[in-house]
Design brief:
The chain contains five helices and eleven strands. The chain has 196 residues and is α+β, with helices and mostly antiparallel strands. The radius of gyration is 21 Å and the shape is elongated.
Length: 196
């Protein structure tokens, strides 16, 4: 038997996170959704760049600060053009950034529309025969449980997956993993092929 090739599960949310915050027109906390648009504002020789959110109820806008008072000379030219053209990849990158939400003291609401997984075979060989290595790539702000992901991808029940984790047939970083633990970007799982 020969060694298998490592696979990557590239996990992407079906929609971008929203923000829960006070709305001046609604008079309380509401949900603001990502508009998919940037606002670039010149102030003298400095720029501000925001990602625009809209109140789901009254359409009032709120700006998530990406850059404030930055010199245009220090900004990557392609990124600047992307802001001006509302580049979708930039919207996804900044619209999924936990650090950006934290910096703006914004309460992030993760996508409730689920996620998609694309399975890609890499050129890296698994370390052992009868082991399948699975590298996780999170392409968005998701908090996803390991048992839910593996049950979906293997086409089995969560209780069956929990047994695999409990028996050490699916491990990460050389150790048993709790089935209900959250997956992380870059995490590497090793699964006994005979387990599936």
């Amino acid at each position: 038997m020969s060694r298998k090739q490592r696979i990557q599960w590239i996990i992407t949310p079906k929609s971008l996170p929203s923000v829960r915050r006070n709305c001046s027109k609604c008079g309380g906390k509401t949900v603001f959704v990502n508009s998919g648009k940037f606002r670039v504002n010149g102030n003298g020789r400095l720029l501000d760049v925001w990602l625009i959110y809209r109140c789901n109820t009254c359409k009032t806008t709120w700006n998530l600060a990406i850059y404030e008072r930055i010199s245009p000379d220090t900004m990557d030219r392609r990124e600047y053009e992307g802001f001006l053209n509302n580049d979708r990849k930039l919207v996804e990158t900044y619209g999924n950034s936990r650090e950006l939400f934290a910096r703006n003291a914004a309460e992030m609401i993760e996508s409730q529309e689920g996620y998609e997984v694309r399975s890609v075979e890499t050129t890296i060989l698994c370390e052992e025969e009868e082991i399948q290595e699975i590298e996780i790539r999170l392409a968005g702000a998701l908090r996803l449980r390991a048992d839910v992901l593996f049950a979906d991808q293997l086409g089995v029940t969560r209780s069956q997956v929990k047994k695999l984790f409990d028996q050490g047939l699916i491990i990460s970083e050389g150790q048993k993993v709790a089935a209900g633990s959250r997956i992380r970007d870059g995490q590497l799982f090793r699964m006994q092929i005979t387990a599936t």
